[in-house]
Amino acid sequence: MKLVIVMPALNEEATIGQVIAAVPKDVACVDDVAVLVVDDGSTDRTAGVAAEAGAIVVRHWQNRGVGAAFRTGVTAALARGADVIVNMDADGQFNPADIPTLVEPILAGEADMATCTRFARPELVPRMPAVKRWGNRMMCSLINRICWNARFTDVSCGFRAYSREAAMSLTLFGNFTYTQESFIDLVAKGIHIVEVPLKVRGVRAVGESRVARNVWHYAVAAATIVVRAARDIRPLAFFGSIGLVIFVLGLGCAGTVFGWWLATGHTSPIKSLLIGAAAFLILGFLLIVLALIADMLGRQRALLHQVLYTLRKSGRPGPATGGERWPAAAQPPSKENT
Questions:
Q1: d(CA 80, CA 76)
Q2: Among residues 192, 210, 233, which one ends one of the domains?
Q3: What's the mean per-residue pLDDT of the chain?
Q4: Is residue 41 within 8 Å of residue 149, measured between CB atoms?
Q5: For a pLDDT cut of 70, what percent of the chain falls above it?
Q6: CATH number of the domain encompassing residue 113
Q7: Looking at the 3D structure of the chain, how many domains does it have?
Q8: Is 160 helix (H, G, I), strand (E, B) or coil?
Q9: Which of 48, 99, 137, 321 has the highest count of CB atoms within 10 angstroms of its CB?
Q10: Per the domain annotation, does 259 fall within a domain?
């Protein structure tokens, strides 16, 4: 049993060495523990410090985003025969000593993905800005609704463990982040996910967040990824609900004019509503038809996923978890720092 710890990193030379050193070498039921750092275009000594600490280092020559770094790390870990993959940040907010607890449900066969939750227990809630806490709660509610009314308590934490099956099932596209998109993708594919309550530092000890300039920038970028994932995973509900709302608005406008005509014998002064009613009815009908077509394309997407999964499982070269080939997304293996 091989466990690979994947750490996406951007300018983390101050903390990454300590985080790597704290990774437990002995984990129950695990024969080999390796640390793989994805240096996402750092301009400091992140790669050098990680290599000196004993990690395998894969580099992006320019910053591509934590979502792209995660995909590169997962693909590289699978190529090295990982049976379990743990993803964690290199900034010291997560405690490496919690890795055995995080991977326990996977090793026990109880789940294929285990994710840290910061909010399941009141005593474990970290100190963080109120707006960030509110944003996490709103995003969690949105993801739960998309994921067929799931009951997750934390969908934004980056401390997670994946079985090999779950990692091979991932099909992600967002470069900015991967946290919410992976929930939608894996739940849609029937992957069982469990939450593991763990203590997490809410504020970085060194430096500032590398993911976004501010909370609002993160919210807009993450929401864009979530909307696209929902469109791809649930196209019938996505387009159908919009079409149904517009169609009902058209019926409402038409019903208002008809009721006015019955009451007064003429349509003035709301005759213009008939134009709006016609526009809404036509647009709503077209969106409903589009929803049916998108649902058909969604079935084709599921078939393509099965082909991709088979290629990954057979070990043949094929698209990585986000559409690119590895190691083209990073430096070639012959140049890796080990």
A1: 6
A2: 233
A3: 88
A4: no
A5: 89
A6: 3.90.550.10
A7: 2
A8: strand
A9: 321
A10: yes
Alpha helices, DSSP H only, in the chain?
16-22, 46-52, 66-79, 99-107, 130-146, 164-169, 179-188, 215-233, 235-264, 273-314
CA distances to 102, 121, 230, 272 from 124, in Å: 15, 5, 30, 58
Partners of 117 in the beta sheet?
Answer: 197
Cβ atoms of 320 and 67 within 8 Å: the answer is: no
Can the peptide bond before residue 269 be classed as cis, meaning omega within 30 degrees of 0? yes
Distance (Å, whole) CA 190 – CA 281: 36
Question: Rounded CA gap, 331 and 334, in Å?
Answer: 8
Phi, psi of 117 (to 5 degrees): -115, 130
Whether residue 217 is found in the same domain as residue 267: no
pLDDT of residue 213: 57
Assessment of whether the complete model's pTM goes beyond 0.85 = no
Query: Which amino acid does the sequence have at 312?
Result: R
Give per-residue pLDDT as tens, 60-109: 999 999 999 999 999 999 999 999 999 999 999 999 999 999 999 999 99
Q: Judge whether 168 and 78 are in contact, CB under 8 Å.
A: yes
Please give the residue that has the higher pLDDT: either 176 or 314.
176
Range of the domain at 274: 235-314
Among 233, 248, 278, identify where a domain stops. 233
Amino acid 4 reads: V
- Strand-strand pairing, 84-87 and 160-163: antiparallel
Cα(66)–Cα(89) distance, integer angstroms: 10
Residues 286 and 177 in one domain: no
The residue assigned the tokens 């009721």 is 259
Structure tokens at 326: 């590895």
